[in-house]
Write a structure and sequence with these properties.
Elements: H1 3-13, E1 21-24, E2 30-38, E3 44-51, H2 54-71, H3 84-96, H4 102-120, H5 130-141, H6 146-165, H7 183-190, H8 196-205, H9 213-222, H10 226-231, E4 237-238, E5 243-246, E6 249-256, E7 262-270, E8 279-282, H11 285-301, H12 327-340, H13 350-363, H14 368-375, H15 380-387, H16 393-411
Antiparallel strand pairs: 1-2, 2-3, 4-5, 5-8, 6-7
Length: 413
């Protein structure tokens, strides 16, 4: 090769000032190494950067070198353990798990084990980039519900906020993550409540089933959560005043081993979901009549038993032997009933009736604040956010007429 060409090739291969060590890998990508600090044993700690072009990598290097120059190596000095999974586990066990219920802990551990750690558990914290995180959420959003994606995003956001405070990372990449189009949420909302046709078919069939009738009538016309209905006792129902008091709910207590795997789970009586969930309200006459009939049925069923099925401290919807009913037994009862009336494959669950309760009230133009109180929502904003799709354009048309009427009164004064 002529001397001039050799000289140009040599110059092209040199890195610029503050570029660190930049080179091209065998797979065609460009890579750089930058010194960002020192480990506890005094050894140099390097950060590896990747890009499709040399200029792309050089810009990343320049940014980090400038940050180190302005803030010093301490900004990037890591704690002893920088593996993503180890740091995440330590944060979760120390800060998150002690402040949530065991059922929520089990759900979040499932997200960690089956999704987050499967994607990033083998990486070091500094290797997880915004691009990798966005690809992860894109992949998950195509396969799982929006609610699951929100839970994972919130969990990782809390972790990264912790990592920033402890100088494990400089920025929180989760704040830049975009999830799928929110229009899909409205489609999910529309499927939450029973359709008019389903309501008609279910309520017509209830006349032929004395056991599930009071359960579904209470669900549909009080808006109780399944956990609240199971915990309901006869002392919580006052037929004289036609009131129901919600004071307790059932929850799952779950035990975990040292690695976070579930060892056992059992159902217990506990407090309601939120403070606002403790509430007393007047029940509709149809619910009072249904529960009154159920009381007499239970009074007949307790004959010959060693336990009372109608005692004040007894669960309203206990099992035939007087024990607290489980969530799974309620689901099984509903599943058999829906199969019997030809609605087995229409996505109807116990919560469908709670959603139907709110939907029917809002369709009838009930005040959202009242609906929120009856539902036990901590904030009316929760009710509006979940059921905003119920409000039709007719409501806005009526509002416009109201405003015209107000103006007319002002103008005529």
């Amino acid at each position: 090769m002529p001397r001039e060409l050799k000289q140009k090739a040599k110059q092209a291969g040199r890195r610029g000032n503050n570029e660190g060590s930049i080179y091209q890998r065998k797979d065609g990508r460009w890579c750089a190494q930058v010194t960002i600090g020192y480990k506890n044993d005094g050894k140099i700690r390097k950060k590896y950067l990747y890009g499709r072009t040399r200029d792309e990598v050089a810009r990343q290097v320049t940014k980090i070198v400038n940050d180190v120059y302005e803030n010093g190596y301490a900004t990037y000095s890591p704690n002893q353990n920088q593996q993503f999974r180890a740091v995440f586990d330590e944060w979760f066990n120390t800060f998150k798990a002690p402040n949530i219920s065991s059922a929520t802990e089990e759900k979040l551990r499932g997200f960690m084990k089956n999704h987050i750690f499967r994607a990033f558990g083998h990486m070091e914290l500094e290797q997880i980039t915004l691009m990798k995180l966005q690809r992860f959420f894109n992949h998950e959003a195509a396969k799982y519900s929006l609610q699951s994606i929100k839970h994972m995003k919130q969990l990782m956001n809390q972790f990264y906020n912790y990592a920033i405070k402890n100088k494990l990372v400089k920025e929180n990449p989760i704040s830049e993550i975009k999830v799928r189009d929110m229009a899909r949420r409205d489609e999910q909302k529309e499927r939450m409540a029973l359709t008019a046709e389903q309501r008609e078919k279910i309520f017509a069939a209830l006349e032929q089933d004395s056991y599930i009738t009071p359960i579904l009538m209470t669900f549909a016309f009080t808006g109780l959560r399944p956990a609240e209905l199971i915990a309901l006792k006869w002392e919580n129902i006052r037929f004289k005043d036609a009131t129901i008091s919600v004071k307790k709910a059932i929850s799952r207590e779950i035990e975990f081993d040292e690695e976070g795997n579930t060892i056992s789970r059992h159902q217990v009586l506990s407090n309601t979901k939120t403070e606002r969930s403790v509430r007393t309200f007047i029940m509709p006459a149809i619910v009072a009549e249904s529960l009154q009939r159920w009381y007499f049925i239970q009074a007949a069923n307790e004959q010959g038993l060693d336990i009372s099925l109608t005692a004040s401290e007894q669960f309203v919807f206990c099992t035939r032997t007087g024990t607290m009913r489980t969530y799974s037994s309620l689901r099984s009862m509903l599943k058999r009933f829906l199969k019997r009336i030809g609605l087995a494959n229409e996505g109807i669950s116990l919560y469908t009736f709670r959603h139907t309760f709110a939907t029917m009230l809002l369709e009838a133009r009930e005040n959202p604040k009242i609906v929120a109180n009856l539902m036990g929502h901590a904030k009316v904003l929760t009710t509006l956010a979940v059921y905003s799709h119920v409000i039709s354009n007719d409501v806005y048309a009526d509002t416009a007429k109201t405003l015209d009427s107000v103006y007319a009164k002002i103008a005529n004064q």
